[in-house]
Design a protein that fits this description.
Distance between the termini: 10 Å
Strand order of the largest sheet: 1-2-3
Low-confidence stretches: none
Mean pLDDT: 82
Length: about 100
């Protein structure tokens, strides 16, 4: 939607891009507001431990954003309107289109 608006609005600089991306499930400190590990019992910790294996670090999760911001092939209008997951372009779901 933003990409469509930029195309219609002639006062916007032609080098502005609007991309969408999904960083994946990342381990960040945001979870501290949902769960306090110091108060968890062993059963809760056993349930949560497998998620540490399938989630990304903050650094890994940021790679898609870094790619979209720095990849010269996406500069200007060439990257606009595209969707990226794990540093690769993907087709958005039918609900998102």
């Amino acid at each position: 939607e933003l990409d469509k608006w930029i195309k219609m609005n002639k006062s916007i600089d032609a080098n502005v891009s609007a991309m969408s991306l999904h960083p994946g499930a990342c381990r960040t400190d945001l979870g501290r507001y949902l769960f306090d590990p110091s108060k968890a019992n062993p059963f809760q910790m056993a349930l949560l431990s497998p998620f540490l294996l399938i989630t990304k670090s903050s650094f890994e999760g940021a790679q898609t954003q870094v790619k979209c911001a720095t990849d010269k092939s996406l500069a200007g209008r060439r990257g606009s309107g595209r969707y990226f997951v794990d540093c690769h372009e993907q087709r958005p779901s039918a609900q998102a289109q």
